[in-house]
């Protein structure tokens, strides 16, 4: 069966510090991968999605970036965090093709102080 | 206009009650539809897909109205464990999530 791992679960970082969040998927090949952010009391905002290694599409311009160095690995990064980057970051995957729901990782709760 | 709009609630209902809520979507080309459940401070989890003819999963019934571009979720015989935020999700080309409807079931 497929599983998705996301870490760390919680993170407190000072303003201006770098960020690296990692997500890996097991049990499938060539998944579509997504990074979402959910601000407190708000809906899910799609940040990036990837349909293959090295293929990244950005939905919202901001000081975040994403990379997919391996088929089942998706990384969210920032060089300098802002207070507004605080939120609940969720990685998700779906099979390629078709109209499937997404499966989410357990999320990283980031607080920028 | 938002792609998916939901009544945020909260819907506060007693145990055993029936609760129903809708969401509307803007893109008529949407091909697939889902309801997700999100517990407080947790990740969203797929509750059920929504099919054109409507479908049930235990106490949960989902309906799709393509003409009016809305989907609905009905929960019968509510349990305390049904307390959560329910996210409406549509897929014109990638999943678009509504902001959620909060349901609180009280004893």
Secondary-structure map:
The complex is a heterodimer of chains A (113) and B (107).
Chain A: E1 3-7, E2 10-13, E3 19-26, E4 32-38, E5 44-52, E6 55-58, E7 64-70, E8 73-78, E9 87-94, E10 103-104, E11 108-112
Parallel strand pairs in A: 2-11
Antiparallel strand pairs in A: 1-3, 3-8, 4-5, 4-9, 5-6, 7-8, 9-10, 9-11
Chain B: E1 4-6, E2 11-14, E3 19-25, E4 32-38, E5 45-50, E6 55-57, E7 60-65, E8 70-75, E9 84-91, E10 96-97, E11 101-106
Parallel strand pairs in B: 2-11
Antiparallel strand pairs in B: 1-3, 3-8, 4-5, 4-9, 6-7, 7-8, 9-10, 9-11
List keywords for this structure.
heterodimer; A: 113 residues; mainly beta; seven-stranded mixed sheet; B: 107 residues; six-stranded mixed sheet; five-stranded antiparallel sheet; 0% helix; globular
Quote the distance from N terminus to C terminus of chain A: 38 Å
User: How many DSSP H or I helices of chain B?
Assistant: 0
What gross morphology of chain B would you assign?
globular
Sheet-strand content of chain B, in percent, reads over 45%
Biggest β-sheet strands, sense, barrel of chain B: 6 strands, mixed
Please state the oligomeric state of the protein chains shown: heterodimer
> How much of the sequence of chain A is in beta strands?
over 45%
Mean pLDDT of chain B: 94
